[in-house]
Write a structure and sequence with these properties.
homodimer, mainly alpha, elongated, DNA-binding
Chain lengths: 217, 217
DNA sequence: CCAGCGTATCAACACAGTGTCGAGAAAGCC
DNA sequence: GGCTTTCTCGACACTGTGTTGATACGCTGG
């Protein structure tokens, strides 16, 4: 499954020493961040805002987190972990019921990221300026692509899918499509797919790209 | 074709009064911006840097442009216009030679945006924080999607493509895929498609999504 | 040939935000 | 009750943005 990326190897993105009661403050900061992100974009939120929201002064904020970015990264980390857990079931089902299994697999991400839009959008915004955010997200994408490649190869091996593009290339483009389409929809971009159409559209394209034969001249 | 979006209705994004010799300075600023963007990301460049690069002081910069963002927007505007011009030919060819025509159409964007990566990447970065950049890019996407929808519908009407997803939904997801895949490749993201594979992969998925029949159970 | 007006320039300022330092309060614990 | 560790914040230093007001520059018409 997805693997590494997470808090595992870098345990304390948050406060300097993970102990005692300041715990509560840390949670207050994270909660404030998520709340404020629901109202405005990341760049509109200052460290001052986060501190005030958590009932502390700005310097005290820095006792708990090294920067605003670190707060968001923590939030994203957790969300990503949540998403990784959910996704396994759909993939398992894929061999018997391709379309339904695929839909289930895609739905897992859709739901986790969709239910915490504020964090999802902040993650995307952060990626533009923060290398750690880029690395974190790269890892997520890599996990998805690896899974999708494996599925495509398995389906080809058992004769359910015809040969075609290298599995990894195909998986890469499809995962990228998913990411972008989700983002556009969640961000309310115009144009974008309607929220209740998103999965249908993506699943259909995946099915054709994986199971469809090479097209006519 | 693509339509509006461009400098047409908002003629002077640049200096306050479009006259005389300060013209040279304006060009110097734009050139400096493009040069510096080749070295580092937008957020690493300050107005000071742009001014210095153009041989003027920071306040003087503000005589020519209202902000750093406006400079980049001007650069992007021009690139977008360039891209719009190129694309027509491929679409025309599409009816006789679907695969070749499609490839040609996609290639047009690939080449324009690929040949000015610095600006392309800056545009993407800007979108994260700047509403005008988002609007500009939305317009570009909208144009592409409209064109792609029209093509899909035409191909279905003449019986070359089977029915399937609503043309606009399909077009939206495919264009989003293209955008994201191009960006990842140009930005050197990991994972991403290799530059010399990008078009082949995208064209193949487009072909299957448009011309392939609905997939098996 | 110089008065006068737009064009162009910049030093100095006001502001908003980040991150740090060092002095101190409060909370454990021996 | 002293010592240590955790926690807190006022005050500071710094970076970057955008504005203001004074001034110089160059042309054009009287």
């Amino acid at each position: 499954m997805n693997a590494s990326v997470s808090t595992a190897e870098a345990p304390a993105r948050g406060r300097r020493t993970p102990r005692a009661s300041g715990d509560e403050r840390e949670r207050a900061i994270l909660a404030t961040a998520e709340r404020l992100l629901g109202q405005g974009s990341l760049s509109e939120i200052s460290v001052e805002d986060l501190a005030k929201g958590a009932g502390i002064s700005r310097p005290t904020f820095y006792f708990y987190f090294p920067s605003k970015d670190a707060v968001v990264l923590t939030l994203v980390d957790r969300m990503v972990e949540e998403a990784a857990v959910n996704r396994a079931s759909g993939i398992a089902k894929l061999a018997e019921e391709p379309r339904a299994g695929l839909r289930l697999a895609l739905q897992a991400s859709f739901e986790v990221f969709g239910s915490r839009r504020a964090v999802t959008l902040a993650a995307a915004e952060l990626r533009a300026t923060n290398a750690e955010a880029r690395a974190l997200w790269s890892g997520v994408m890599e996990g998805w692509i690896a899974d999708a490649s494996a599925v495509i190869e398995a389906e080809r091996a058992r004769g359910a899918a015809p040969p075609g593009l290298p599995a990894r290339d195909l998986a890469t483009a499809l995962i990228q499509m998913n990411e972008r389409a989700h983002y556009a929809t969640f961000a309310g971009e115009q144009p974008a797919l309607a929220e209740d159409r998103l999965l249908d559209v993506l699943v259909d394209i995946w099915m054709r790209a994986i199971y469809g034969a090479d097209a006519p001249a």
